[in-house]
Amino acid sequence: MSAMGSVATRLASGRLWRIAAAIVVFFIAWELYGRTGRALAVPPFTEVASELRAVLASGELVGPTLGTAAVALLGFLIAGVLGSVLGLLIGLSSTFRQVVGPWVNAAYATPMTMFIPIIGMYFGLGMGSQVFLVVTFCIFSVLMNTAEGVQAVPTQYFELARTIGISKPAAVLRIVIPFALPYAFVGLRISVASAFAGAITAELLLATDDLGLMMMTASGNFQFVKLAALTFYVALLGFVAVGLVYALERWVAGRLRPSS
Amino acid sequence: MTTSDASQVTSRRVAPRSSTRSRGRDPSTMVWALRIAVILLVLAAWQATAASVGADLLPTVQSVVVDGIPPLVTEGYAVEFGHTLGRMMIGFVIACTIALPAGALMGASKVWNDVLTPYAYGIYMAPRPALLPLLILTFGVGATFGFVMVLLFAVFFPLINTAKGASEVVNGPLYEMARSLQISRIRVLLFVLIPGSLPYVLAGIRLGLGMAFNGILLAELWTAYSTGGLLEAMVSYGQLPEYFALAGLIGLTAVASYSLLGVFERRVRRHRGMAVTGSFGEAS
Q1: ipTM of the assembly?
Q2: Which of A102, A254, B157, B197 is least surrounded, with the fewest CB atoms within 10 Å of its CB?
Q3: pLDDT 10s digits, A214-223
Q4: What is the pLDDT of residues A194-211, one digit of tens each?
Q5: DSSP character for A172?
């Protein structure tokens, strides 16, 4: 079903209306709570939206946005490549999986945030430490999902490959990777949200820079409306990033789907 | 998180285990030997690096054991971490108290699923650390700030997994049968819905607890409070053996709780005859 068809079906079933209503209710509740003036850090939504418009129009967000996006993207790409390769190895070799798997699980369960102080010491207070933190935030989702995808390849596929005389590397390239790709993409989709979270964490707690620096400055100057606008903007960036990976995933899935 | 942990996020199903390649048998002696070799290799690499870069940058393994571990008790670092854990657990219980009923509602009703989905995914997709400056201004430095951070970090996985579990039960044959036999709602809830969705709920709790650790530590690092404050101070004052010992304690606690919940979850899955989606590398 096409994307337009899907939207039309959801509209007809009332699904889209309910989702839209839930979002509208959130903004109305935000506006009403903001107008009570109970929390200085929660200004009314209309004020936040108009502040965001002003900040966007001034152009002061362009540089910091590119800086934060660069950190998130670089960390995301490194984590994507490393995670996919390790996930492939873990998924393919049962010995490797059994030896390395428990350590990967342990690393996944370990709260990476506790390393923030030491990352700054080892990698310096610059882009290196920021990117490293993003990699630690992202890598496990890609790795575990890729491994899960490789392990989910039905045994019959391998038997068939052996029967028709396809070599092992060719089987990996032509069977395993296409099969595991949707799983890896799921990991990437989950990771992209983590990448932005990691970049913002790094810019707030490690090396204050870009959007993190703007937020810290607004907070330090008690510019509550600007702070709320920046927070809202960062949240929007997160949604856009996840949306982009989702679109890429659908595009790749469309290309891989066998034509009928 | 893997595809089998929160299928709603991933929207994919893992093929039945029987038709896929062998996931894992009981690890052989060889595997155990290799696992131990990996630990020894890591320790040897640590030791060699520490010897080459010096104790100011990386303490030796002996130094962490001899100089770092005793202060956990004598200086009260372990007790402080216990306080952090307590605050984390309060925040996590609040998160579960919200997530489990809301998730059950989402799974059982399409209308509620549509209404709550934007909030669930909004929390997940928005970079939550960006809320730190706003939340500190709203809640101040203290326990409440920590609770809110844990809530924001931990609520998603229990919510979405419970929704998935409840949805599977509601769309399953047992629920259909219970309805056609006109069994009371309470009995359906107690004997069909809760047991049926339990494995998913447990997976959500396991993943959520991992996020809770990150949430509380981030809150405490931001405010230089309690364990987070200790970690920062230790690095700032060059007390690296103490830092690594405390980080080790935190890591061990997180890994132990994650693994124990994983074992419990796999038992429940086995008991219910479901595919065991245990972590790779573990016998399943």
Answers
A1: 0.86
A2: A254
A3: 999 999 998 9
A4: 999 999 999 999 888 899
A5: I
Interface test with B, best of A76, A89, A100, A114 (most B CBs within 10 A): A114
Q: Are A26 and A19 in contact (CB under 8 A)?
A: no
Q: Which residue has the tokens 């770092």?
A: B68
In the predicted model, is pLDDT for residue A8 greater than 80?
no
Return all residues near A72 (Cβ < 8 A) that are at least 6 apart. Answer: A134, A192, A195, A196, A198, A199, A241
d(CA A42, CA A47): 10
* Rounded distance between C-alpha atoms, residue A69 and residue A248, angstroms: 17
B176 vs B169: CA distance, rounded Å: 9
Query: For residue A213, which residues of chain B lie inside 8 Å, CB to CB?
Result: none
Q: Tell if the CB–CB gap between A109 and B254 is shorter than 8 Å.
A: yes
Under an 8 A CB cutoff, do B14 and A148 touch?
A: yes
Please report residues of B whose CB lies closer than 8 A to that of A204: 129-130, 132-133, 222
Q: Which residue has the tokens 């004052």?
A: B237
Q: Which of A136-140, B6-10, B142-146 has the lowest mean pLDDT?
A: B6-10
Indicate whether this model's pTM tops 0.90: no
> Quick check: A225 and A44 in contact, CB under 8 A?
no
Q: Give the residue from B244, B13, B177, B102 showing the smallest Cα distance to A110.
A: B244
Task: Determine the Cα–Cα distance for residues B194 and B165; give it in Å rounded to an integer.
Answer: 9
Distance CA B258, CA B110 (A): 31
Average pLDDT over residues B84-88: 96
All residues at 6 or more sequence positions from B161 whose CB lies less than 8 Å from its CB, including other chains: B5, B6, B8, B103, B200, B201, B203, B204, B207
Structure tokens at B246: 């405390």
Q: What is the arithmetic mean of pLDDT over A139-152?
A: 91
B118 → closest Cβ in A23, A40, A215: A23
The residues, ordered by sequence, that sit 6+ positions from B183 with a Cβ below 8 Å of its Cβ are: none
Q: What is the rounded distance in angstroms from the CA atom of residue A225 to the CA atom of residue A27?
A: 15
In B15-44, the residues whose Cβ lies within 8 Å of chain A are 15, 19-24, 27, 30-31, 34-35, 38
Which residue among B11, B137, B214 sits closest to A113, beta carbon to beta carbon? B214
User: Rounded CA gap, B157 and B1, in Å?
Assistant: 9
Least CB-CB distance to B255: which of A109, A204, A216? A109
Give residue B185's pLDDT.
79
> Which tens digit of pLDDT belongs to each residue from A165-185?
888 888 888 888 888 888 888
Determine the residue among A201, A213, A224, A239 to mutate to test chain B binding: the one whose Cβ has the most chain B Cβ atoms within 10 Å.
Answer: A201
pLDDT of residue B154: 95
pLDDT tens, residue by residue, B240-250: 999 999 999 99
